Amino acid sequence: MTDRFLDKAYAARDGAATRVLYDQWAASYEAEVGENGYATPARCAAALAKFLGDMSAPILDFGCGTGLSGLALKLAGFTTIDGVDLSEDMLAQAKDKDIYRNLSLIEQGQQLTHEPGDYAVIAAIGVIGAGAAPASVFDQLMYALGKKGKFVFSFNDHALDDPQNEGRVHEWTDCGAARVLFREHGPHLPGINLKSNVYVLEKA
Question: Which domain holds residue 180?
Answer without folding.
Answer: 6-203
